[in-house]
């Protein structure tokens, strides 16, 4: 049932002639309860999802000791004098945590030992991989695949408590996982369960807000939600009916260091020694990839294997590279696998020359005084990032675009700027916006993206002209960490005011021009016409796709100067018509999609802009 009245309070002088609403059916064969569960599952967060098809995994014969240690703890931990249920794997950016966890999940699956997995990702277009919302339902869904008895008990719980998905994580854990496990404990042999639950990237989980910014309550932080996840896992691990071992990977940020600190229970004020011992007993010793395992040997194996592939592909003579070069690269990596992978992508994906020439370029890169004097542990990685970005014909514009591609397209901004792309009006598993739509919005003519990004293919995936409907994507979040810190990226740092001005310039040009969209081969013509201030006509499907993308943009709260606003009343009329009548291909109508979130951000912003413009006359 769609309630339109609340969307248009106090609105008048318009009508809706026809409204089509499509409600997708649940998967065939599912009960109502399991269909409801499925609707709250983040399929992209599972280790073997299509979204993670290009996710990193450990190269053969690397991280052998680490993976063996983790797998042995999972499979044989019950024979320890004090069996433990949770183990934390940590390390700085670029140390290969996600690769280790991905490989561990596949190894456990191959051995029949994987019960469930969840890979958080702040870069994902799926909001369910960025928030805690789908975490417990996704684990419960996977556990239900291993046991018909558990699945039946879970179904019964959801039937009795259909609003369980709106509860706290602790409550969801108790109702969706622990209660079914307890109910089947007598009839289930716990030794038959797979043992491992693999959870990666919890530090990338973002804050879910329940109130408007004006509400008289403190906004939740991402640390609040991350701690809630950890607490729910800990509560499960201490339950006698819970037969699994949990491996959690994250960066060593404060909330994780404090949570996994063995002394926190000893100083918590709990008087009962037995209770302190019980709480402490659930944690296995943590593993720091940077401190506990020397990655140099693994990086050497990885580089040697990849260099051999390059040598054979390009018929290079042995020895290539020289042993001294290998030692230098391993030393410059400083235990960071991301440095090695970036070097290899630079040699294979760059448009600047052959592998030998490019290897000489890498070896010639020098750490700048700015980077060297900052106390930065990523000296050589930063120097390589600076060198690659400066190979673009317009490095500052390339940095602006990278912020747009990541912060404005793939996720709401957290610390890095004033604008975002809202996911509330889109299917939550929708693919990332096509590169062509970003190009159209940012006014880049045909071939312009390749010109700007042509030498940056080792940092981000740039769709070819024939695949322009594919999205842009970054290879590793460490690039954003680099660009976020002015002490690391120097003159490539983009101030917040600059990002805001860049956004408004592109955003208002589209508002001014009332654009429709031609196919990709006519983008240049479309942009020239749009820049002349006249709307154009084109294929309705292409127009719908672009407008579906554009309506998703949430402008910054700080408005531009009045002399930049040229949206007329007729322009607002045109935009209102598009908003009311457009249906996005493959999705439900925009109105009920927006109704679910009780917000029409675009309408509000358009009216604010035009009213400000008229008031200034």
From TrEMBL:
Keywords: Repeat. Residues 81-251 form the Nephrocystin 3-like N-terminal domain. The keyword Cytoplasm does not apply. SUPFAM superfamilies: P-loop containing nucleoside triphosphate hydrolases (SSF52540). The keyword Repeat applies. InterPro entries: NPHP3-like_N (IPR056884), P-loop_NTPase (IPR027417). This is Nephrocystin 3-like N-terminal domain-containing protein. The lineage of its organism: Eukaryota, Fungi, Dikarya, Basidiomycota, Agaricomycotina.
């Amino acid at each position: 049932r769609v309630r339109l009245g609340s969307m248009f309070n106090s609105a008048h002088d318009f009508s809706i002639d026809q409204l089509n609403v499509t409600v997708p059916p649940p998967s065939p064969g599912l009960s109502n309860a399991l269909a409801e569960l499925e609707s709250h599952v983040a399929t992209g967060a599972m280790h073997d999802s299509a979204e993670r098809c290009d996710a990193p995994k450990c190269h053969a014969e690397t991280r052998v000791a680490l993976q063996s240690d983790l797998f042995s703890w999972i499979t044989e931990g019950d024979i320890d004098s004090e069996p433990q249920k949770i183990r934390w794997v940590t390390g700085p950016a670029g140390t290969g945590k996600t690769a280790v966890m991905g490989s561990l999940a596949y190894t456990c699956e191959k051995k029949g030992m994987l019960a469930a997995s969840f890979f958080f990702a702040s870069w994902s277009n799926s909001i369910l991989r960025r928030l805690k919302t789908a975490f417990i339902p996704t684990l419960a869904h996977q556990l239900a695949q291993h046991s018909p008895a558990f699945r039946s008990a879970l179904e019964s719980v959801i039937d009795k408590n259909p609003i369980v998905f709106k509860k706290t994580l602790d409550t969801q854990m108790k109702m969706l996982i622990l209660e079914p496990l307890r109910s089947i404990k007598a009839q289930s042999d716990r030794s038959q369960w797979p043992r491992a639950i693999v959870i990666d990237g919890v530090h990338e989980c973002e804050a879910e807000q329940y109130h408007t910014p004006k509400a008289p309550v403190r906004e939740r932080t991402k640390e609040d939600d991350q701690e809630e996840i950890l607490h729910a896992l800990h509560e499960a691990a201490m339950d006698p009916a819970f037969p699994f071992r949990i491996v959690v990977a994250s960066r060593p940020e404060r909330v994780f260091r404090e949570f996994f600190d063995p002394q926190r229970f000893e100083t918590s004020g709990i008087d009962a020694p037995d209770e302190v011992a019980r709480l402490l007993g659930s944690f296995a010793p943590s593993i720091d990839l940077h401190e506990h395992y020397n990655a140099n040997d693994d990086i050497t194996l990885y580089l040697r294997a990849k260099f051999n592939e390059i040598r054979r592909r390009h018929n290079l003579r042995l020895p290539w590279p020289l042993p001294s070069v290998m030692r230098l690269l391993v030393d410059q990596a400083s235990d960071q696998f991301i440095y090695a992978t970036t070097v290899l992508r630079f040699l294979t994906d760059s448009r600047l020359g052959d592998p030998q020439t490019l290897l000489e370029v890498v070896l010639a890169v020098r750490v700048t005084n700015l980077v060297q004097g900052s106390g930065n542990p990523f000296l050589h990685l930063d120097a390589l990032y600076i060198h690659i970005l400066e190979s673009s014909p317009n490095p500052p514009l390339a940095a602006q675009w990278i912020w747009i591609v990541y912060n404005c397209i793939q996720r709401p901004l957290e610390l890095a700027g004033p604008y975002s792309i809202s996911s509330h009006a889109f299917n939550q598993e929708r693919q990332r916006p096509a590169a062509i739509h970003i190009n159209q919005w940012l006014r880049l003519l045909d071939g312009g993206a390749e010109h700007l990004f042509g030498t940056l293919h080792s940092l981000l995936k740039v769709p070819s002209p024939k695949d322009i409907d594919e999205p842009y994507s970054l290879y590793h979040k460490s690039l954003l960490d680099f660009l976020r810190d002015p002490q690391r990226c120097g003159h490539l740092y983009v101030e917040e005011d600059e990002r805001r001005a860049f956004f408004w310039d592109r955003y208002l040009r589209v508002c001014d021009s009332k654009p429709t969209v031609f196919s990709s081969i006519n983008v240049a013509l479309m942009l020239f016409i749009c820049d002349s201030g006249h709307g154009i006509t084109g294929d309705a499907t292409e127009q719908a796709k672009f407008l579906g993308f554009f309506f998703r943009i949430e402008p910054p709260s700080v408005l531009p100067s009045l002399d930049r606003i040229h949206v007329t009343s007729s322009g607002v009329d045109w935009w209102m018509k598009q908003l009311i009548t457009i249906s996005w291909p493959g999705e439900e109508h925009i109105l009920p999609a927006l109704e679910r979130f009780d917000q029409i951000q675009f309408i509000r912003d358009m009216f604010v802009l035009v009213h400000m413009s008229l008031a200034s006359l």
